[in-house]
Amino acid sequence: MTLLEVSGLTVGVEHSPHALLRDVGFTVEAGQIMGLVGESGSGKTMTSLAIMGLLPVGIERRAGMVRLEGRDLANPDRGDVKRNANDLTMIFQDPRSALNPTMRVGRQISRALELNQDLKRADAKSRASEMLGHVGIPGADRVARAYPHQLSGGMCQRVMIAMALACRPRVLIADEPTTALDVTIQAQIFDLINELVEETGCGVLFITHDLGAIAEMCDQVTVLYGGQVMETGDLRQVFTDPRHPYTQFLFDAVEREVDPRIEEKDVNFALQGCRFGHRCPYAFDACAAFPPLFEVGEGHFASCFLHQKENLVGSS
Amino acid sequence: MALLEVRDLYKTFGHGRTLTPAVRGVDLEVERGQTLGLVGESGCGKTTLGRVVVGLQEPTSGAIYFDGELLDGRMSKPEYRRRVQMVFQHPAQSLNRRMRVGTTLSEPLRLLNVAPRGEVEGRVDEVLRLVGLGPEDLKRRPSQLSGGQQQRVAIARALMPEPDLVVLDEPTSSLDQSVRGRIIALLRSIQEERDVAYVFISHDLSTVRRIADRVAVMYLGRIVEVAPTEQVFEDPQHPYTKALLSALPSMDLDNRGSRIILEGETPNPSEIPVGCSFQDRCPLVHDRCRREEPRLVALPDGREVACFAIGDPG
Amino acid sequence: MGRPADPSRQEGEHVSTADPAPDAKPSGFGRGSGDDGKSDPFEAPEIAGETTRLPLWRRKPLLIAGFVILTAFVLLAVFGPLFVSDPRVTDTANTYEAPSPDHWFGTDKFGRDVFARAVHAARLDITIGIVIAMAAMVVGSTIGVVSGYFGGWVDEGLMRITDVVLAFPGFVLALILVAAIGNTIPNVIIAVTIAYIPYFIRLTRAQVLSERELEYVDGAKLAGNGRWRIAFRHVLPNSMGPSVVQAALVAGWAILTVAGLAFLGVGIRPPTAEWGVMVAEGAPDIMTGQWWTALFAGGMIVLAAMAFQFIGDDLGAEGV
Asked: How many CA atoms lie within 13 A of C64 on its CB side?
């Protein structure tokens, strides 16, 4: 069942013609983890903020639709975000700075419960402790009384996960949740997320730049570059048979030598056509237009004109 | 004789009640023109070790031999600086943001008396080309360069005095994945061309694998395993190394979820337990581990491991 | 400007500290593909070479206003005296004349042309304001960097001295100093400068404390820089941001202080044409209805101080 549906999402800076995100779309299914992978500047964080309605001042959503279980989250302003916490929550990259440093962590969770689930203080408190135990924190009651700076990074991330899942959301957005953590702790957190997905059947949008993490965790993957969806589909398909030049370049960079024809250039947001156009060794005249997603396999899409039927070389 | 030899090195921070031992009795060797990978997670002391080797920090005790000579507080002298250099983790931060690239690069030449005045420009151009930048970058400030380019400048700066050894502290961790590969390739080609030795510090094992000849694994200030790179990756011995490798997310889709998950977290460096520092998380722990601390012991195949369950350093 | 840098050196942590780029990049997106995912995602990215935001005069109107006014004053100060009559010429036959086409600001009790005096005073006061601000900034930041970079007992000592100086309100301190060393123009400048030095010491020192933890300082050490060179050649230039902003503000306050001292009779003495002197001499005249002798000078003090204030405020708000 599709829990979150994003389509045609276009986001840009006010007073500027350029788009930071262009026609971004993907879905998150129940009990599944969709990976959103991209390098810095690809727009993956911007995407999550746009979905949550947390776009910074000066950035506007220009087009597109975000639907949660069929309901339109059209242009939620700050007030609506609160209402959605039971449906959609987010955990961030640097756990310590994402938690309120002046509030004990247990209280932070129980407050979220009081506000979003209308629980009474006592009930919220006990559920908060319960959640902390649930995410594998030993001595949950003691930890609940601690402040974020007294806890390690791994613990803080668990607290954040506890807070995010306490309200039993349908969809969890995890933006680089383990990038700031040690790899052995990362393994623990991945394990935890997998467990929770199995248990609650929620969907996860897992945002990262780490291809290995995507390979470990995700069921589907969407590759983002310069605000454009380059490729999307089932994890196995995309990883074993990448069809977009950018995806191939990304995999090459990690595993072996990069194609020397591809230069180290910054993203050019002024490009009207394909955002990889200025670096792609296969670029040709069609690439001056913005490529739609072409189907290259079952449930597997790539936004590259090489896959436009007329351009396919040889028999199809 | 190895280019760099570290013997029983200790570095402790703080004083009085709050002592934090960052490095506890480390022995290391680095051969000429070779790369030693130094891996470990936060708090293991690898950065501190790197800084002590380079001379940014004085050791608390222990000895460092460079090219056969014992260094005795001579580490901040220009001669040492000419031969041992460092590249840091955050490229933007490691360059003076108000200084142009040209000035940043010519500074070591002038201050360390490496080249006579007339040659400075030529040398700078040479090294600039070596790291894949061009003369147009000389006038630029760091903010006008991408992360990868900034790191290239930092590498160029380190290479200006033609050092024999360069310590690289997480040089690619702040860079995009696609840029990482290029920087690693660059470092390798420089190594070949100039016969520079590297100490490559990183928490990212997959990157280390691509450049190191030997790998030393650190945990809480001590080295727990040293071996040639492929041996460490194919056949890790120490339980911590095994867990570390197993925790590495890999692109191999057929091996998902078969990981060793360590319990608990790394203890605080100022609260290291008596005995083996890994005891609270180790699947092989027994009584002796709680009383004594294992030292690095050479195994028959030449590698070294510090664990009572593996070799017996009795 | 002077955004606190991240001093963390924890292993395994990837926190980027890239500062926003003041110069335009050759192409593409903001600060380079190095690490943007880790920098503040809540900041609007800068697309180089593009006016992605409103033009400067709409974003920072006060800054522009301040510069316009200041430029007018500077022009007045530089060229004005060439076009007006000698401010010292008295004309006892024409005292207390109201503003007229002959005397734009009227004449004072000695028959001197108030406008001429005001223009000459502009030259003096604007110069004094700028000189004091620059001097205080230079001395203050030098002390600040030595204190902040070297630390130890030097730092302790200097900080305690600064504390003592700051215990006195600036004006009172200037007053005491002027009383002690005499009120010639150079002495007044020195006294007021001393009163403002501590601000710069504190500002620079604070910035230096975080700068010295950054990696480029280590890089400079490895490049062969000695401690003094690092302090002055590397750290100090990077620590001056807040001080420059403060200097703009101090210039305005200095003018007010000097004028105030003159008004009390302990600063610059008549018959020197100085705004404060003019206000002091002309104040009693207001009672008898001759408002022009004091008001124009007073108005110029306010305008000049305001101009510096606007510049200082808006300069600091978004960073240089």
From this structure: 7
Residues 6 or more apart whose CB falls under 8 angstroms from that of A53 comprise A73, A75, A76, A77, A78, A80, A81, A84
Q: Is the dihedral of CA A236, A239, A243, A244 positive or negative?
A: positive
Phi then psi for residue C144, to 5 deg, are: -60, -45
- Phi, psi dihedral angles at C73 (to 5 degrees): -65, -40
**Which tens digits make up the pLDDT trace of A93-115?**
888 888 999 999 999 999 888 88
Q: What is the CATH number of the domain that holds C197?
A: 1.10.3720.10
DSSP structural state of residue C29: B
Closest by CA to A73, choosing from A45, A53, A49, A89, is: A53
User: How many CB pairs below 8 Å do chains A and C form together?
Assistant: 81
- B2 Cβ under 8 Å from any chain C Cβ: no
Q: Which residues of C touch A56 (CB under 8 A)?
A: 41-44
DSSP C195: H
CA atoms of A158 and A135, how far apart (whole Å): 6
Can you tell me the mean pLDDT for B105-124?
89
What's the pLDDT tens digit per position in B50-91?
A: 999 999 999 999 999 998 888 876 666 888 999 999 999 999
Range of the domain at C280: 114-317
Residue C99 belongs to some domain of the structure: no
Residue C264: inside a domain: yes
Is C209 inside any structural domain? yes
Question: How does pLDDT run across B205-235, given as a tens digit for each residue?
Answer: 888 999 999 999 999 999 999 999 999 999 9
Least CB–CB distance from C17: residue in B51, B93, B144:
B93
Helix, strand, coil in percent for chain B, rounding step 5: 35, 20, 45
C245 domain residue, yes or no: yes
Domains held by chain C: number: 1
Cα B308 from Cα B224, distance rounded (Å): 11
